[in-house]
């Protein structure tokens, strides 16, 4: 059987994992890669290539970095010259035109970090954890013009323990996405799988995360706050204010409620434990990060904390 010629479109590390998977499988030939342009990063704001670009160049693969592929005629014409049979899109970060989707024999497929039609949109992994879902997964869909609305070629599921954060889930879903490419994608190209339309009545939307969501509100329940902390742990993070300074909160634990206090009030403060009252239930802070300092276990943070039980975190 001839190798499947692929045009790969992706940008972050999640996409890099999938590109590496295709490059490692002899059934695929990556004809070319499209990724976002180099962006300023780090304290010095140096132009930095995407993880996908770095990997592609390492393997001698031609890379295009259009600012907007949908309006870059020259880039589109170049992609046509690659004569790819299918486009594989993983966290590319740009809108694709119908003309682009139709330019491949087998269309374009997308690895999406949710069990579609649940959590269509920009932040499926984070919104799933924030909502307290007990199950998540990754879907391989044939792309259509409407965002994340294409028929599903295959999926992989994973149970979500209450302590799992977005970073851990992100890494696990990347591995499962690779399974979809090396299994269901091959079957789809070989005509062994017919994509299944999504049930529009079950659609939920994973809206983009705003920075304003990072400030925790003690009036919410302990479970809601805990889920937001773990959902945002790979960005943008969460924080509370302690004496007019930000305290980033990296890890928490919901505990059975004892004597009820006011939201934001410290109910337990010992050499190794800091528990705060919420609108419903109590929350133990486990890993935090004061301003201009590295993250630390709560016991180390408490050593220099000039607060007592009954004081407030706001």
Descriptive notes:
With 314 residues, the chain is α/β, with parallel strands linked by helices. 25% of the residues lie in helices and 28% in strands. The strands form four sheets. The protein has a seven-stranded mixed β-sheet. Helix 1 packs parallel to helix 2 (51-58), helix 1 runs parallel beside helix 6 (166-189) and helix 5 runs antiparallel to helix 7 (222-231). The longest helix is centred in the middle third of the chain and has 24 residues, at 166-189. The termini are far apart.
| Rg (CA only) | 23 Å
Shape-level CATH architecture of the largest domain:
3-Layer(aba) Sandwich
Beta percentage is 25-35%
**Count of the domains:** 2
**Mean pLDDT over the residues:** 95
Number of strands: 17
Strand order of the largest sheet: 5-2-1-6-7-9-10
Task: Give the SSE layout.
Blueprint: E1 4-10, H1 13-24, E2 28-34, E3 39-41, E4 46-48, H2 51-58, E5 63-64, H3 73-81, E6 86-90, H4 98-101, E7 108-112, E8 120-121, H5 124-130, E9 135-142, E10 152-159, H6 166-189, E11 205-206, H7 222-231, E12 238-242, E13 245-255, E14 266-269, E15 274-277, E16 282-290, E17 296-297, H8 298-302
Parallel strand pairs: 1-2, 1-6, 2-5, 6-7, 8-11
Antiparallel strand pairs: 3-4, 7-9, 9-10, 12-13, 13-16, 14-15, 15-16, 16-17
Helix pairs in contact: 1-2, 1-6, 5-7
Summarize the structure.
With 314 residues, the chain is α/β, with parallel strands linked by helices.
């Amino acid at each position: 059987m001839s190798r499947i010629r692929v045009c790969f479109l992706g940008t972050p590390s999640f996409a890099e994992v999938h590109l590496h998977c295709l490059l490692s499988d002899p059934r695929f030939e990556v004809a070319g890669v499209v990724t976002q342009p180099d962006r300023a990063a780090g304290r010095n704001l140096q132009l930095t290539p995407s993880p996908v670009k770095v990997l592609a160049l390492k393997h001698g693969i031609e890379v295009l970095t259009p600012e907007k592929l949908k309006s870059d005629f020259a880039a589109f014409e170049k992609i046509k010259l690659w004569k790819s049979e299918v486009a594989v899109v993983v966290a590319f970060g740009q809108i694709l035109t119908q003309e682009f989707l139709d330019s491949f024999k087998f269309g374009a497929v997308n690895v999406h970090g949710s069990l579609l039609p649940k959590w269509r949109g920009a932040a499926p992994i984070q919104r799933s954890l924030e909502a307290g879902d007990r199950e998540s997964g990754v879907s391989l869909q044939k792309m259509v013009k409407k965002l994340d609305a294409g028929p599903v070629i295959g999926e992989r599921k994973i149970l979500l323990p209450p302590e799992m954060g977005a970073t851990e889930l992100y890494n696990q879903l990347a591995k499962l996405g690779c399974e979809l490419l090396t299994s269901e994608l091959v079957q789809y190209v070989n005509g062994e799988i017919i994509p299944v339309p999504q049930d529009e009545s079950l659609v939920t939307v994973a809206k983009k995360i705003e920075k304003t969501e990072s400030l925790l509100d003690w009036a919410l329940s302990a479970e809601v706050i805990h889920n937001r902390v773990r959902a945002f742990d790979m960005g943008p993070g969460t924080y509370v204010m302690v004496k007019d300074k930000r305290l980033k909160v990296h890890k928490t634990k919901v505990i059975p409620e004892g004597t009820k206090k006011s939201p934001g009030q410290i109910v337990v403060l010992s050499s190794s434990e800091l528990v705060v009252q919420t609108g419903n239930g109590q929350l133990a802070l486990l890993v935090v990060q004061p301003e201009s300092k590295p993250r630390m276990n709560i016991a180390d943070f408490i050593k220099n904390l000039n607060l007592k039980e009954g004081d407030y975190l706001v």
